[in-house]
Structure formats: structure tokens, C-alpha cells
Amino acid sequence: MMRIVRKAIVWVWVLFILSCSSDGSGGEGQAPGEPIDKRANQQSVGDSSQDLLDDSSFTSLYVEIYYVQGLRPSAETMDHFKGFLTERLNKPAGITIELVEMESPGQDVYSISDVRSIEDDIRTAYNDGSILKVFGLFLDGAYSENTGDGSVLGVAYRNTSFVIFSETIREFSGQPLSPTTTVLESTVLDHEFGHLMGLVNAGTPLQSEHQDLEHGRHCTTEDCLMYWTAETGEGLVNMISGGTIPILDQACLDDLQAHGGK
Questions:
Q1: CA nearest 52: which of 40, 39, 66?
Q2: Which whole-number Å values give the CA distances from 116 to 29, 125, 191, 260, in the listed order?
Q3: Could you give the CA distance from residue 110 to residue 13 in angstroms, rounded to a whole number?
Q4: Pairing of strands 161-165, 60-68
Q5: Number of Cα atoms under 13 Å in the Cβ half of residue 206
Q6: H/E element, 67
């Protein structure tokens, strides 16, 4: 297993203190020494959309984000992400985000199979009682499905898992007249979590016809956060105007609110 160095700076909105068992034993809904049941966190994207949005099964959210050394997301990125989650999710017992530093896996290119394997090796946070847990990964290297027409910046690949290709983001933010790293990181984070929330028509039912069928689970509104170009560097740089992070359009908000969100 890769050596993990925990340098936890935690952004916490607290009505009570969440506890996380890093060794996989014990916990609110688990007897000491009992193996973790990981199956609930290894489903398809969108399968936990209602669990994320409402508070009927889970009253709090814990997000564990691993980042490769040197690619720590900024405090501004995390503050924005926390605000985005708070605005959309009904989690009265609180939302916690923890950052964990890790060594590079040492690859130049990653497939989704590679990313899943990395998650399976290092993830410690799985659903526990009333706490819904999500895993995020900020990686070096590039996505294996990149083409000459588009460099993918992030992928939601399980119901509670997403990956951000942080090194690729920084390459785009370093170009002349490009948005800042914080703006690009924040946009991709919000977009991928939008998929976990079931957008568009990926677990959260449509309230109106706004799915871009040509581009899968995306919105037809060009300035909406869930427009398909928000996942590629080339498209996102052109999409962002004046350094402003895109927001969800009304059609996407209607879908989330009808499915238990704010």
C-alpha cells in the first residue's frame, strides 16, 4: 500500500463532531472488528443521488479527498466546494471535508480501472450509520481517454467517488488569459459532484427536457455548470467568462429539488 501522510486541514460546518474510523473497525453502525461492507460505496454514478440530496437515510456527509504531493487544492477551492455542497444538500448534522496527502502512484496516464484500484488501496471512509461518505482523488498525470480534441479534467466513476486530474488543470490554468487554478478546480469539482447528485438524468429524474443526449448526462444550456464542456480543459477555458465559476441552471435545480435537494 502506498505510504499516506495525513496533513489534515478540515473545513467543518459542525452541529456535532463526526467520527471516522481509519482502521476499518467499529463505527456508529458497525461492531468492533467487523469487516467494512464497501458495496454501498461501489455502485454506479447516480445510485446515491437521493441519499446525497435528502436527509431520510443520511443526516451528515463526510468527504475524504486525497491529493498527490504538490497538488493540494487551494483553501479557496475547498471553501467554494463546501459552500456548493451546503447550498444543495440537506445534511442537518453537518458536512465535513478532509484533505489527505499521498505519494504519487507514479504513472503518466491513468485509466478509470487504475483510478478504481488506487481508491480500493487507500480509501478509508465508507458509509457508517447516518454518515454518508464520499471519496475524491486529485491526481497527477493525464486521463487515458484524452484525445486531440479534449483533455478530460475530471470523472465521476462510482456513486460516491470522483477523480480530478489536477496536473492537467494546472497546465490549462498556466496558459495566457486562462482562468485561475482555483476557478478551474472549483468548476470541475462542482461538475463532477453534480453527476454524483444524479445530473443530468443520471439517477435524479428530469422535471423538464434539458438532457443533451448527444453528450450523455449533461445539460443543454450552454452556460450551465452541467454543460458537457465543463469536463474538458479546452471547452472549460472557453466556457468560463470573466473568471466566474458556472452555476446550475434552473432546470437542473428543479431536478435536484424534486429529488430531495435544496
A1: 40
A2: 25, 15, 20, 29
A3: 34
A4: unpaired
A5: 13
A6: strand 60-68
Instruction: Read off the pLDDT of residues 151-200 as tens digits, 9 standing for 90 and up.
Output: 899 999 999 999 999 999 999 887 887 889 999 999 999 999 999 999 99
The pLDDT-based confidence of 25 (bands split at 50, 70, 90) is very low
CB 67 within 8 A of CB 138: yes
Which amino acid makes up residue 22? S
Asked if residues 69 and 102 have their Cβ atoms less than 8 Å apart, the reply is yes
- Which residues, 6+ apart, have CB-to-CB distance to 8 below 8 Å? 98, 99, 100
pLDDT at position 11 over 60: no
What does R_g of the chain's alpha carbons equal in angstroms? 17
How many C-beta atoms surround the C-beta of residue 213 within 10 A?
11
The closest alpha carbon to 138, from 178, 94, 78, belongs to 78
Number of H helices, E strands in the chain: 7, 9
Task: Name the grid cell of 150.
Answer: 479534449
Give the separation between CA 133 and CA 110, rounded to whole angstroms.
24
CB atoms within 10 A of CB 35: 8
DSSP element (H, E) containing 252 = helix 250-258
pTM of the predicted model, to two decimals? 0.86
Provide the β-strand partners of residue 157.
none
